[in-house]
Amino acid sequence: MTLPVTAMTAAILALFFIYLSYQVVKQRVRTETSFGAGNDEHMDMVRGCQSNLIEYTPVTLIMLALLELSSANHMALMVLAVAFMIGRFLHVFGMHRHHAGKTVKFRQIAMVTTWTTMVILALWIIYLCVTVNLLS
Question: pTM score, two decimals?
Fold first, then answer.
């Protein structure tokens, strides 16, 4: 397979997205809400979990693929991909805890993990663009 890290990450996150989508549908059926959140806080929360995953995943997968195509170190990419996924899983866990009136700590850790992973990937790509493409 040409892009094994990107492919594995995409597959795992696709399954996670299906799970989150199921949670949204289940809540829609429960509250008989076809569109929006219908003034239901739990619906807001499950929709937020789903949409947040979709907001961060595409650009991360693109960056992983670009780095894999540039023959970047697969082990380092795998570590970053796992960190990103942990961040996304922690975000959902944190959203559920926050909705239950508990601390936002897990959401904060999730966002720092997600953003840090994305910044590292972006800087790595910029570094390769400058050093490999512009200076050679």
Answer: 0.88
